[in-house]
Amino acid sequence: MSKAEGVVIEAGRGWAVIMSKDGRYRKIKTGQALYPGQFYYAPDRAALRYGLAAAVLLLLFTAAMDFFNVVAYASVTPGIDLGINRWDRVVSVKTNSDEAARMVTQLDIGGKTSSEAVAVLVSRLIENDQRSGESSGSLDITVHSKNNDRALGTKYQEKLMTRISGSIDEVLKVHEKINFENDTIGEKVSIQYKRSAPGLAPKMNQEGQNAASQPDKSNPAGKKTDGNNDQKAVNKDDHSIPAVKQDAANSRFREVDSTRPAGEAGADSTPQGNAATSPGFFSHWMEKKTAIDWPEFKNMIKPGQEKKDN
Amino acid sequence: MSNAEPSQLEKIVVSVWRQYKEGDTTAIEDSFDQIMPYCLRICARTCGRYIDNSDEEASIARMAILEAFEKYEPQRGKLLLYLGYVIRNRIIDYKRSEEKRHFTPFSAFQSDQHIPATETADLAELILDDLARKQDLDRFKAVIQLYDIKLEDLVRGSPRQKKTLEAAISIAAGIASDQEMSTYLQDKKMIPIRMLEQRCNASRKIIDRYRKFIIASALIIIHDIQCLRPYVSDRKGG
C-alpha cells in the first residue's frame, strides 16, 4: 500500500475533506469508503499511466501504418514507380534498374508530395538524357492503383493527374533549351522533348508547328516574330546566356515577343543566345526596342553597370 | 456518534450486552448511536464502498448486532471483535444471496467461518484506531467552530504555493509558541497582527489572506490535536 497522503477529517458519499501531509485542507472526490479519522491513501494510478502510454503508442503505430500505406502508384516510364499514400506523399519507390535506383537515391524524394516528386524525377531524367547526348526523348507518367484488379476512384485519379501535370509544366519551363509537348490523355501524361542545338537559334517555324501543345494566347495565329534564317555567330561556349526567344510553341516567350512591334526586330534580327534571366535586364532590353546582334547583346548595358565599348 | 475511546467503547458494548442478557432489550436501542459508527465502518470495509444509515447494509448490521449479542460468550474473545466478525459474515451472506438469489439461513453462520478470525481482528483494530482519531477530529471541529471557522473555509483558504504554506504554518507555530500571542488569540478570537509583525517579522499580506488557516493551525498546536499535529509542524524548525 502506498504512503498515507493525509487523514480524513470529514467524509460523505463520494467525497471527503482531508488534511494532506503538507498541511493543506483539500476536498476530494473519491469512490473509496472513507470515514473521519481514517488515513487516506491516494489510488495507485500506475495502471492508468501504463494504459495511457499504451494508447499513445498504439495511436502512433496506427498513424505510421496509415502513413506508409500505399494507395496509388505514379509510374514514370523508364521503370520507376512512386508509391503514394492517402496524404499524397511518396512513401515508396520501385525501380527496375540499378541506374534508376541510384538516381532515385540521389534525389531523395521520399516524403515529398506526388507532384513534387514526379517533377523532380522528370527534370532529372531529362537532364540525364541531355548529358548523355540525347537530343530528344519521351516520358510517360501514369497513375494506377496499388491492386491491379482494382481501379482508382475517378475523382482521385483526375485530381492526382492534374497536380502532377501542373507541376511538370512548372518544372519543364526551367529547361529553356527544350521544346516539350505535354499531352495529358486520361490517366497518362506524355512528355516529348527535343533539345535545341546549343548556340543556334531554334528553327521556330518548323518546330513551332510540330510542338503546338499549348495554345498561344498572346500571339495571334500566324504571327512569326523571328526570322530564323539569319544565323549570327555566337559564342558557342557560352551556354549560360539565356536565349532571347524560343520557338512559337513556347507561350512564355511568345508573350514577350508579342510586345515588340512587328518588323522592328525584323527578319534580319536574330537575337542570339538565351532570354534574360532577370526581369530588370529584360525590360531594359525591351526599352531599347532595337534589333541587336549577339555581340551587342552580350555587351549590352545592364542596369547599374557602366557602358562598355564594343 | 460515539464519543468514547475504543477501550471505553468496548466497556460500553459489554455493559449493554450484560443489560441485554438480563432482559433489558431497550439497552441496545439506547446504545445504537454509539455502536453504529463502528458497525458502519465494518460494513464499508467489507463492501468496499461508503455506507451510511440509509443503506441496506446498515439494517443488516443492526440485525447482526442483535445476533451477536444473542450468541456472544466471554470465552469467544472481545465483544467488539466478535461483533465485527458477525457483521462481516452477515454482509457477505447478503451479497451472496443477492447474486445467487438463494436464501442462506442465519443458522448457516454457526458452523461456517467465512472469514479468518485474524483478518477480522486486524480490521477491527484498524477501525478502532480510526475511531480514536475521529474523537480528536471531533474535538478540533468543535474548537474551530468557536472561532466561526468551517471546514469549507479551510479548504478554500489553504495556501497553494509551497512557500506561502510554509510561511503560514510558521506564523501559526509562532503564535502557539508565544504565551502572550496564544492567550490573545484564545481570548479575542483574533490574530495578534502587530505582535506578529514585531516579533516574527511576519508578512501582513499572508496574515490577512490566510487568517482562518493560520488560526486553525495554531489551535491544532495549542489544543494538541494529536492526529493533526504532525501535519502542521513548522518546517523551519519552529
Describe what you observe in this structure.
The complex is a heterodimer of chains A (about 300) and B (about 240). Chain A has about 300 residues and is α+β, with helices and mostly antiparallel strands. Chain A folds into three domains: about 1-45, OB fold (Dihydrolipoamide Acetyltransferase, E2P) (Beta Barrel), CATH 2.40.50; about 50-195, no CATH class; about 220-310, no CATH class. Chain A is about 30% helix and about 20% strand. Chain A has eight helices and ten strands. Chain A has helices at about 45-65, 100-105, 115-130, 155-170, 205-210, 250-255, 280-290, 295-300; strands at about 5-10, 15-20, 25-30, 40, 70-75, 80-85, 90-95, 135-145, 180-185, 190-195. In chain A, the strands form two sheets. Chain A has a six-stranded antiparallel β-sheet with strand order 7-6-5-8-10-9, with helices on one face. In chain A, strand 6 and strand 7 (about 90-95) form a beta hairpin. Chain A is rod-shaped, with a radius of gyration of 34 Å. Chain A starts with a strand and ends in a 12-residue tail after the last helix. Residues about 200-280 and about 280-295 of chain A have low confidence and may be disordered. In chain B, helix 2 (about 25-45) packs across helix 4 (about 80-100) and helix 8 (about 160-175) crosses helix 12. Chain B is elongated. The two termini of chain B are about 35 Å apart. With about 240 residues, chain B is mainly alpha-helical. Chain B has two domains: about 5-135, no CATH class; about 145-230, no CATH class. The interface of A and B includes residues 7, 10, 12, 19 and 20 of A.
